[in-house]
Sequence to fold (227 residues):
Amino acid sequence: MAKVLNPLGSLQASGSVGGLTYSLWRGINTVKAKPKPVKRHSGVQPRMRALLGYLSRAWGLLTDAQRQLWREYATEHPYPDGLGGTFILTGNQMFNALNHNAIRLFGVSFEQDEPPTVDPAASIRYFEAEEGALDPGSVDLSWALYGVGDVNDKNEIWISPPLGSEGKVNIDSRMRFKTYVVGNELLFSVTGLVETAWYWFKARYVDKYGQTTAWQWAHATPKESGL
Fold:
């Protein structure tokens, strides 16, 4: 139970109530709340951790020659850093990154012990989002490619939560995987969205070896009912 000085004026409280802890810190009245625990036994996180654990064991089974091939590939293929630049991964990191993408999108049979020797067949040249043409709560996505999309590859699409405006501040960390379409398709309609909200979308081309191209971004508000 929290102790309160001058409860009518609420000048100071100490103790915990309703998940909040009231205390005096360096002469300042503070209120703290413990973060809610992550649901570790459901959702995507356990699967991702299991996959990374599997890849860590797989790396340990590679020969020295195979590990060297991954180191050379990593040196020759700088990885995007999320800030518009690039950095060089270690061979182990590159092995994990490509195989994680390949297994996640294509299945465990696409795991590879050696790095690919060919570049992706295509990349997304532009990416557009607009109000859906048919269903309320829908957004139509379209894109064009550099190169020719391969039916064995994927166009990977992520989506933001519903937003109150089109501002893009801190959106990247809130994006979540939505779906993928085969590499030679250029259209996709997202349905079931909040009609008055803004949504950001991002898409990239991923080949069957797990190699990715740069993200392309677009945003739109879904079609509203009766309009």
Q: What stands out?
A: The chain has three domains: 3-33, 44-110, 122-220. The chain has a mean pLDDT of 86.
